[in-house]
User: Fold this.
Amino acid sequence: MTPAGQRVRTNWDGLRRVIGAALLCSMPVFAAAYTVTLNPAAPLTVYLQVGVGSFTAIYNNGGQPGNNTTVNTVSVTVPAGVVGNGTAQAMTTNSTATVSFVDGFAFCSVPGQVYIGGFYRTAGGATAAAQVVATVPAALTDSTGDTIPFSKIRWASSGNGDTGTEVFPSGTFVNGGVQNVGSMASNSWNESCWSFSYLNNTVPPAGTFTGRVRYTLSAP
Amino acid sequence: MTGRRGTIVPAFFLACLLSIIWAPAAPAKTTIIDDSGTQSLEPSVSMHWKSATPSRSAPDTMMVGSTTIRVRINVMPWLHRAGRIYLSLPAQQPGPITASWVTQGRFSPGLVHSGSRMLVYSGPISTPFMEDVLKFQFNVDGTLIRRAVPVSFHFEMDED
Assistant:
């Protein structure tokens, strides 16, 4: 009896192993899901254009931004008979930039307006706006050292088809220093057209007065 | 006895008939497939702006990135049976993600949004492993990914 009983138990053990192996074979292996890493590669991009700029084509047609080293001017010649009479004199520019590089829309008019626009791109959550500042000398100077304060020049902001507040609002230069002239919300295109004028409310010596203002975009 | 039998038998057939008519369809069994043989040529997906320049009208924050993945899934448990294989992209951080892919023909190309799945194969399972090379493109809102983020997906089998 004993051998037979052992044999029976042994057979059951073997059957259990077979069943267990069969179950294991039939059960799928639950591998971990496949994982890739999404890595924002150098997402910070800035573009500022004051006057003429460079795009390979209109952006909506696949254009890409580029560098442009041109320094544009705005100028006015005040007739002798009206010097200092308080009537502002409109300035004109040598900039030829009229269309927006976003879509080719004729946004500004020359020679009366200077285009200013750009964007900054950044990944991540809400970020502070990028700031555009003007670094302004104390005065315009002529060849003999005479000066006209930069605060005698102002600009009015607009744009064809624009309504509401301009991204780069109207203003007047400071007499030397760095002044904010506008800000850009992230990941959007920002642009305005500036019409400069000379206040003409003092009588400076006759001469040609010049000065250079540098515009800088600073992204957070 | 005969009379009682006569009343029972029709009732039995009626019960069978009802059970056939009203039996609910058995839900397909879904199982995650072993994809441990899958390899990525570039496990880190470099994400770029979909548009180099944002639009004037509204913020434009979509980023895209591509990677090629050599998929190898173990379908041995379903060998010589029929099944439907899905690519599943679970809802996960950093938020809504879209993945699209093209294949070399073993699987179907497709597109899936996070939180859903897409059929990539339906038919008989005739080999222990199924392989294909998938070129993925991921789309995600750039405002959600200031830093690198892992994104997981898997394949799953529906068997009837």
Observations:
- The first strand of chain B starts at residue 29 and ends at 32.
- Helices of chain B lie at 2-22.
- Chain B touches chain A through 50 residues (CB under 8 Å).
